[in-house]
Write a structure and sequence with these properties.
CATH superfamily of the largest domain: Aldolase class I
Number of helices: 16
Largest sheet: 8 strands, parallel, barrel
Helix content: 40-55%
Radius of gyration: 19 Å
Strand content: 15-25%
Number of strands: 11
Order of helices and strands: HEHEHEHHEHEHEEHEHEHHEHEHHHH
Bound molecules: flavin mononucleotide
CATH architecture of the largest domain: Alpha-Beta Barrel
Distance between the termini: 18 Å
CATH topology of the largest domain: TIM Barrel
Number of domains: 2
Length: 337
Amino acid sequence: MNTASRPQTPTVSRFCTRYQLSTPIALAPMALASGGALAAACAQAGALGLVGGGYGDLAWTQREYTLALPAATTGRIGCGFITWKLDEDASALDWVLQHRPRAVMLSFGDPRPYASRIAAAGSSLICQIQRLEQAAQAVEAGADVIVAQGGEAGGHGMDALNARAVITLVPELADWLARHAPETLLLAAGGVADGRTLAAARVLGADGALVGSRLWATQESLAPEGAKAQAVRASGDGTARSAVFDVLRRKNWPAPYDFRALRNDLHRQWESRIDALRAAPDAARAEYDAGVKAGDFSRAHATVGEATGLIQDLPPAAQVIARMTAQAREVLGQISL
Ligand SMILES: Cc1cc2nc3c(=O)[nH]c(=O)nc-3n(C[C@H](O)[C@H](O)[C@H](O)COP(=O)(O)O)c2cc1C
């Protein structure tokens, strides 16, 4: 190997320096879970707090982003959106931009049509991608940060045919960015849920990590309490990727994206018969809706990734961030070959 061509992982995270963070963690902008209280708690704990603007619901985004605004004085509050939904209605993005967020994160679609208005608001652009081949488009959009999302992540991502694993995607992207866009920062997303995995992200060449599942399982998260309790009980074997819950929830996600959540009884019933489910979804949807109404997570979904196996409690977000940071520092100081 020609070591000269390999980027060195900088000792101090460039992500911390550029965003004035005390830990290289960003809260993932999780739709319906990353509300204003969670984003504010993360910002106050020294991380970047991204409100989950998700599907671009204007009223939800206004309410939750407003709750996070007092913490915006930290300079660590931003918002994320699902890009293909913005193509239908970008009013929530335009509303957020009036408040000059520190960063806007776009995932799942072409970010280029939105880049100039995000830059005009003085916000930085974070683009989440799943494959190396998407990196050039993110750089062309002017991404300040690229998030490399692996297939182990909770929520939406690339389907099994297309998903990459964090352990190879991150170093490959770090090498690519060193050659093509050395000022663009890199975060790892997928499975980062404790100090070991945060340290691993840094060792792989990322400037930090985007953390979803672990911060979803906190007191401030808006996820249903029953779903969080289910995630505490599950091991990392207990999740699966598929389109089942998207069909049940009437979400018309485009290929090649699908969704990782706990693999419950209703999921098992349909996971190998997805075409049949799409062709005649009504009865299964009624069962799913009844599960949601009853808080029965054998039928309703709990959105968490493989990191669920590393989640054993539901503390305040600040505690999660402090623990992850302290353990990562300890691990990085201890390991040798
Ligand atoms: C409950 C939940 C909801 C999510 N919603 C979104 C979303 O609205 N937009 C987005 O870009 N990513 C979303 N994600 C994916 C995250 O951005 C991130 O890639 C993922 O959480 C990282 O993996 P981890 O869950 O193992 O930490 C979601 C993830 C979870 C767990």
